[in-house]
Design brief:
Blueprint lengths: L7 H33 L8 H10 L1 H29 L4 H32 L7 H12 L2 H27 L5 H16 L4 H24 L12
C-alpha cells in the first residue's frame, strides 16, 4: 500500500515553527547569559594593566565565569541578530541587510576583546610561575598598543552601528516601539563601557533583555505556522 507523499508545503509549515521558536529562544537566552555575566563580573576598568590584572588575580573564578558568559552570550547573539533581521526584511530589506551585516562584523571585534579577557585571566592565575609585575606590564602594554586596539575597536564599533540600523527597522516595521528597539544598541555599548560599574553593567544587560527578550517572547506567542512573523509589541 503506497503511503501518502508529504507535500513540501507541509514540511515548510512544520519547520516554520522550529525556526520561530529557535530564534525566540536565542533572543531570550543571549541577554539572559549577558545578565548572568553582569552579576558575576568583578568590577575592573581596562585603562590600567594593574587594575585589570588584580581583578583576574583576586577574583579568578568570578572573572573567568563572567567573561565566559559574555563570550557564550555573543555566540547566541549572532544568530539572534540574524533572526531579528529576518523579521525586519519583509518590509525594510535595506535595514535588515545592513543592520545584520554590520552587527555580525562587529561581533568579530567583540570576540577579539573576549580574547584579551582570557589572556588576562591566564596571566592572573596563581601558581603559573609568571612574574606578576611583568604580567601587569604586559597587559598594560597590550591595552595601550594602538596597532592592536585600533583595528579591534573599529570593528567592534560596527556592532552598535548595526544594531542602531536594525533598531530603526524594528521600529518602522512595527515590531517594537522606537525606545525599546534603541535599547539594543544602548545596552550593548553599556556592557562594553561599564565593566567598572556593577550597577550600570547590570542595567545595560537588562536593557538588552528588555529589547531582544521582548521580541523573543512575541515570537514564542505567535500563532503556529506563522514562522518568523510577529505582530507589534
Amino acid at each position: 500500500m503506497a503511503s501518502n507523499p508529504v507535500h513540501p508545503k507541509d514540511t515548510d509549515h512544520r519547520y516554520a515553527d522550529v525556526e520561530r521558536i529557535g530564534f525566540a529562544v536565542l533572543m531570550i537566552g543571549a541577554p539572559l547569559l549577558m545578565l548572568g555575566a553582569a552579576f558575576f563580573h568583578p568590577p575592573h576598568g581596562i585603562d590600567s594593566g594593574a587594575q585589570y590584572y588584580s581583578a583576574s588575580h583576586d577574583h579568578g573564578t568570578r572573572f573567568y565565569v563572567a567573561h565566559t558568559l559574555f563570550f557564550l552570550s555573543a555566540v547566541l547573539f549572532v544568530p539572534a541578530v540574524v533572526g531579528l533581521a529576518r523579521l525586519v526584511h519583509p518590509t525594510h530589506p535595506k535595514a535588515a541587510f545592513w543592520g545584520c551585516v554590520l552587527s555580525l562584523m562587529g561581533f568579530v571585534g567583540y570576540g577579539a576583546l573576549d580574547g584579551i579577557d582570557y589572556m588576562t585571566w591566564v596571566a592572573g592565575k596563581d601558581n603559573t610561575g609568571l612574574d606578576p609585575v611583568a604580567m601587569q606590564a604586559f597587559i598594560d602594554e597590550a591595552l595601550h598598543t594602538r596597532a592592536v586596539l585600533i583595528p579591534v575597536l573599529l570593528v567592534f564599533t560596527l556592532l552598535p552601528i548595526g544594531l542602531v540600523v536594525l533598531a530603526v527597522g524594528v521600529h518602522r516595521a512595527g515590531i517594537a516601539p522606537g525606545w525599546l528597539a534603541a535599547l539594543m544598541a544602548l545596552g550593548m555599548v553599556g556592557v562594553a563601557a561599564t565593566l567598572q560599574y556593577p550597577v550600570l553593567l547590570v542595567i545595560s544587560a537588562l536593557a538588552l533583555l528588555a529589547s531582544f527578550g521582548t521580541v523573543g517572547v512575541k515570537l514564542l506567542r505567535a500563532p503556529s505556522g506563522e514562522g518568523s512573523a510577529v505582530g507589534p509589541v
